[in-house]
Amino acid sequence: MASEPPNIERRQHKRYVVRDGTYAFLRPPANKIGQIIDISMSGLAFCYFSTNGATKDAHGLDLLADEGICLEDIPYTTINDFILPNEQPFSQITMRRRCIKFGPLSAKHRDYLQKIIDKYGKDQISADSQ
């Protein structure tokens, strides 16, 4: 019987759970906003509501925080976008989770992103808990 290969962490940066009050906004044509779940220097995951399936990629991503911190027009690529389980299976509105990888970041983007992680990041996510 073959043994399973060990779970190898492929991420380059530590991920952090984010406290409430931090949001990701997909710019037009998507125009979607959602609560950030976790974040790192290389990407993030957030949840959003949808009525018509996965949202197309936008022309940039903004990060918004409750204390006025805003990081605008971050380049990104969608890695995954999937429906989260729903207790009401016949609902027209679904909750989705989108996982993104940041594109090339400017020095300003990196600095502000680190400030957001320092201020709003709570607990580091271990590779075992995924």
Give an overview in words.
The chain has 130 residues and is mainly beta. It has one domain (22-123): Beta Barrel (Thrombin, subunit H). 11% of the residues lie in helices and 44% in strands. The chain contains one helix and nine strands; from the N terminus they run E-E-E-E-E-E-E-E-H-E. Strands 1, 2, 3, 4, 5, 6, 7, 8 and 9 form a nine-stranded antiparallel sheet that branches. Strand 2 (22-26) and strand 3 (32-39) form a beta hairpin. The longest helix is centred in the C-terminal third of the chain and has 14 residues, at 107-120. The chain is globular and about 45 Å long. The model has no long low-confidence stretch (mean pLDDT 84).
Key features?
1 helix, mainly beta, single chain, 9-stranded antiparallel sheet, Thrombin, subunit H, 130 residues, globular
Brief overview:
The chain is mainly beta and 130 residues long. It has one helix and nine strands, in the order ββββββββαβ.
